[in-house]
């Protein structure tokens, strides 16, 4: 056997890999928008949302190490129908999610050419999303784009921007201190704890929780992690602390310098330009920063065009989708033309929100909330799955286990996750405008109901026809 295959991952490497899965600069303006309250919201998201997700995923991934992830866990516990629902939701959450990510392209392109106002124009943002995403889609159908620039995209879109933001933020803070008209202002404990005065900040809770979405993917490294039983929990929580520091410190500096009410959620260059103004640095730094992140987002979007579709291809090959969809067919690069075109068409429809709503911030927040709530449905099913498997398969080997004995701790962790999701859902729907709340609810319900309808009409001939088509 190849030595590389059996070499164990050290704790430090695992922490780095876990942080890389969730590291992003896109959530920093959302976090900064709540001022000092971001401290309590982040603590809530870590303890009740990200922590439980990581622990549950750790147990389920070692108990069921075969390929499949959340879909396999839920399928084993709750049956084929709910496994299919999970696979579907993990695919469709990218529809609003990719529009949310792609919506940063307009402001970044505008800032690259020194035209800030252009980046705030909702028609320009819409045009950038449609044109650029369709170009990326066509390239992925014609070439093996999975090999192009994945690591470069992370460096340009995440690591370097985070470092630049921290350095400029620290220096700016030492120069101006706490700015009176910023989102922070003078510190007081009443600003840290959510209360009646800052209730409106609850609408950002889903976006703040979204920072940690995807943390469950680190569980795939458990089989290769050295002393996994001890190091997985330690590594995940050190990673979470690192992510919290990375996001919270940056968000505090951003919240300090941006004037209250002027935050642009999809414009990550906004604080850079303000830092440059404070420090007397040339504005070309903002132009270079924007272009660099623009390229990083492009490369990351390209990697995501085909990634999530892999699961839906497998689901189609298992006979759970009508053969006439053609989702089971792949080209020479392992890409399903019909899956990729379908998702790009739907993403384009979601992007039209930028045409009917002229408030760029409102659209960005609506898309963030919709993505988070769709993903949260998956997390509810995972939480139910661990409880069901503890009852149905108590003697199955669990290399990593929540609690040394008994089921109490596992049930508590599961309940904490479900509790946090209920809070996030009510906070999101109860504090946004009626139209936005209805829109988010409709998106989430529709995406949840569609796979149930498809599964209801499923028949055995689908699998026969799919296998026959593949053989031919």
Automatic annotation (TrEMBL):
UniProt xrefs under InterPro entries: AA/rel_permease1 (IPR002293), APC_superfamily (IPR050367)
Membrane topology type: Multi-pass membrane protein
Gene3D superfamilies (UniProt xref): Amino acid/polyamine transporter I
Assigned keywords, A-Z: Cell membrane, Membrane, Transmembrane, Transmembrane helix, Transport
Cellular localisation: Cell membrane
Gene Ontology MF term list: transmembrane transporter activity
Presence of the UniProt keyword Glycoprotein in the record: no
Pfam families: AA_permease_2
Gene Ontology CC annotation, any one: plasma membrane
Protein name stated in the entry: Amino acid permease
Species annotation: Enterococcus phoeniculicola ATCC BAA-412
Phylogenetic classification of the source organism: Bacteria, Bacillati, Bacillota, Bacilli, Lactobacillales
């Amino acid at each position: 056997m190849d030595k590389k295959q059996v070499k164990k991952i050290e704790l430090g490497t695992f922490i780095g890999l876990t942080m890389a899965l969730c590291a992003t600069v896109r959530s920093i303006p959302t976090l900064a928008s709540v001022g000092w309250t971001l401290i309590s919201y982040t603590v809530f998201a870590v303890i009740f949302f990200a922590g439980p997700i990581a622990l549950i995923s750790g147990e389920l991934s070692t108990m069921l190490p075969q390929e499949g992830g959340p879909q396999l866990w839920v399928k084993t516990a709750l049956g084929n129908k709910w496994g299919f629902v999970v696979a579907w939701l993990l695919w469709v959450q990218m529809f609003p999610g990719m529009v949310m990510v792609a919506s940063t392209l307009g402001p970044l392109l505008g800032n690259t050419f020194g035209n800030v106002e252009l980046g705030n124009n909702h028609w320009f943002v819409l045009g950038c999303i449609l044109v650029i995403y369709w170009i990326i889609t066509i390239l992925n159908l014609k070439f093996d784009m999975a090999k192009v620039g994945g690591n470069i995209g992370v460096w340009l879109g995440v690591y370097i921007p985070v470092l630049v933001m921290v350095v400029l933020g620290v220096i700016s803070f030492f120069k101006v201190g706490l700015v009176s008209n910023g989102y922070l202002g003078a510190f007081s404990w009443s600003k840290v704890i959510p209360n009646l005065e800052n209730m409106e900040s609850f609408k950002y809770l889903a976006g703040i929780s979204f920072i940690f979405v995807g943390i469950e993917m680190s569980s795939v490294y458990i089989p290769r992690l050295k002393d996994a039983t001890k190091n997985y929990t330690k590594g995940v929580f050190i990673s979470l602390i690192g992510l919290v520091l990375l996001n919270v410190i940056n968000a505090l500096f951003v919240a300090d310098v941006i004037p209250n009410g002027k935050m642009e959620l999809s414009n990550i260059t906004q604080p850079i330009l303000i830092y440059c103004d404070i420090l007397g640095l040339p504005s070309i730094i903002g132009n270079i920063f924007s272009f660099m992140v623009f390229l990083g987002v492009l490369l990351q979007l390209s990697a995501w065009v085909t990634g999530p579709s892999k699961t839906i291809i497998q689901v189609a090959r298992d006979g759970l989708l009508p053969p006439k969809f053609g989702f089971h067919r792949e080209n020479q690069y392992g890409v399903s033309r019909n899956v990729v075109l379908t998702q790009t068409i739907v993403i384009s429809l979601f992007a039209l929100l930028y045409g009917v709503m002229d408030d760029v911030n409102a659209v960005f927040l609506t898309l963030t909330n919709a993505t988070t709530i769709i993903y949260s449905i998956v997390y509810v099913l995972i939480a139910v799955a661990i409880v069901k498997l503890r009852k149905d398969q108590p003697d199955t080997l669990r290399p990593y286990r929540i609690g040394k004995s008994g089921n109490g701790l596992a049930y508590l962790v599961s309940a904490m996750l479900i509790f946090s999701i209920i809070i996030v859902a009510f906070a999101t729907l109860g504090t946004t405008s009626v139209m936005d709340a209805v829109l988010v609810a409709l998106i989430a319900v529709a995406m949840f109901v569609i796979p149930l309808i498809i599964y209801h009409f499923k028949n055995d001939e689908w699998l026969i026809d799919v296998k026959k088509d593949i053989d031919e």
